[in-house]
């Protein structure tokens, strides 16, 4: 691999796949790192520019091997929603390995969680990081490790914060059940309230921003907001999803009490309870600093993102159940 090797730690997720597509479009070689070699081969095996490396994040030697010969490390390592205590643990191990191997820079894909409850209608990077949730505290600890390493001169670090995302493959999105329901003409079970302001980013828009950010020297030592394609509401998005799918909108809303009840049987829903504030006190990000830094930040309009998601989900369903999906013209 070349000296400017980019390694995608957590490459099997939808954001990792999007960053890989952006690198492919640039004709770049890259390394994909994940826990399952088989899963990585399934996703990237057909691309001759992709180097596949399986790692065990429990073993420092394995992490060092995954970081060896890398210039830029894009960190997108996911954990189960009920295992957020692992975020700072895995970041510490990865940073130790990256510094030992001479990695020059790390880009962390972050969230709005460390901001906590929004104090302003629009949240800039100057907003205090005062998380009001355990998950927010773990994410802040993760960020602080990287920012401290950057401040110490051990490695360059930057953080890109994302809002909720949607698009093909995002089965943990608030909107996923709406897409799935609309394609079947069935009711979607949603987590509400549905009429509070909200923003979403289309997953395919993230990759080009990440690759532009990693090449910008002024990005390091700071964190950056990437806002959605505009302020909308879940209801507006769901109505458009059903309309484009050609089905009348049908939805059932779960309030906080119902989410808590569902959590008795579903660990993801149990952990969602403390993040419910994001639906009632939304963190709407201001990304004017990112636009000033990069010049261009393209965002797919919601209607077009919905259209593309429906097309790809139909194609996936057709492959999985060839006889069950009627042909469309």
Automatic annotation (TrEMBL):
One of its GO terms (molecular function) is aldehyde dehydrogenase (NAD+) activity. Coiled coil: none annotated. GO terms for cellular component: cytoplasm. It comes from the Bacteria. Pfam families: Epimerase. Residues 8-226 form the NAD-dependent epimerase/dehydratase domain. InterPro entries: Epimerase_deHydtase, NAD(P)-bd_dom_sf, NAD(P)-dependent_oxidoreduct. PANTHER family: NAD(P)-BINDING DOMAIN-CONTAINING PROTEIN-RELATED, PROTEIN YEEZ. This is NAD-dependent epimerase/dehydratase family protein. The lineage of its organism: Bacteria, Pseudomonadati, Myxococcota, Myxococcia, Myxococcales.
């Amino acid at each position: 691999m070349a000296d400017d090797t980019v390694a995608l730690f957590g490459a099997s997720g939808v954001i990792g796949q999007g960053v890989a597509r952006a690198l492919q479009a640039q004709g770049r070689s890259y390394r994909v790192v994940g826990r399952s070699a088989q899963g990585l081969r399934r996703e990237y095996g057909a691309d001759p520019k992709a180097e596949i490396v399986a790692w065990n994040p429990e073993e420092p030697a394995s992490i060092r091997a995954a970081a060896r010969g890398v210039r830029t490390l894009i960190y997108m390592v996911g954990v189960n929603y009920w295992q957020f205590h692992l975020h700072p643990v895995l970041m510490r191990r990865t940073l130790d390995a990256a510094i030992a191997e001479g990695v020059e820079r790390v880009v962390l894909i972050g969230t709005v969680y460390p901001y906590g409850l929004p104090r302003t209608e629009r949240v800039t990077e100057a907003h205090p990081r005062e998380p009001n949730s355990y998950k927010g505290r773990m994410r802040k600890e993760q960020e602080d490790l990287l920012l401290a390493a950057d401040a110490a001169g051990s490695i360059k670090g930057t953080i890109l914060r994302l809002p909720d995302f949607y698009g093909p493959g995002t089965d943990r999105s608030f909107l996923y059940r709406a897409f799935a329901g609309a394609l079947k003409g069935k009711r979607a079970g949603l987590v509400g309230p549905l009429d509070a302001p909200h923003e979403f980013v289309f997953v395919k828009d993230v990759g080009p921003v990440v690759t532009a950010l990693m090449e910008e020297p002024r990005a390091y030592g700071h964190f950056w907001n990437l806002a959605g394609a505009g302020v909308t509401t879940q209801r507006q998005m769901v109505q458009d999803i059903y309309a484009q799918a050609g089905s009348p909108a049908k939805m059932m809303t779960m309030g906080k009490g119902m989410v808590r009840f569902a959590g008795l049987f579903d660990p993801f829903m149990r952990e969602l309870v403390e993040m419910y504030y994001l639906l009632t006190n939304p963190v709407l990000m201001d990304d004017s600093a990112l636009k000033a830094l990069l010049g261009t930040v393209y965002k797919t309009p919601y209607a077009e993102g919905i259209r593309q998601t429906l097309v790809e989900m139909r194609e996936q369903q057709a492959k999985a159940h060839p006889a069950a999906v009627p042909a469309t013209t």
